[in-house]
Amino acid sequence: MTAVRLIDIRDVPLSLDEVYAAVTDPLAGGICVFVGTVRDHDEGRDVAALGYSSHPTARDRLRDVADRIAVECDVVALAGVHRTGDLAVGDLAVVVAASAAHRAQAFEACRRLIDELKTDVPVWKHQTYVSGDAAWVGSGEDTRVAGTD
To answer: Which pLDDT tens digit goes with each residue over 4-33?
Structure first.
């Protein structure tokens, strides 16, 4: 079985159980799971809601990232899913997991998977603040706009 067992970009709620199950294996002595959730603040501002959108190649790019990590890290399995669409405070935005024979390898692979997903996969966050302002966050440029979009 391939080490990359679940990769997806979806517009439906994410399941921790699904991602955990994807990396569960008798060979694994350690499983590390990271869950990113929508928080109610960002850089000192109150967040009302946010939406994620992605490029059509996002799933393939996530697969490339996971395949690279699977080769470079000593893992048993990897899984990652990212949400798109409108999300509320508290919703799951991203879930990634790695399993390995030992915890150190599981932690390393899980951290690399979320970090490289954030830098290499074209998924963008549009945040709406309680004040009514909105911004595209993490796009590499200042894209704050006054009022609602």
So the answer is: 999 999 999 999 999 999 999 999 999 999
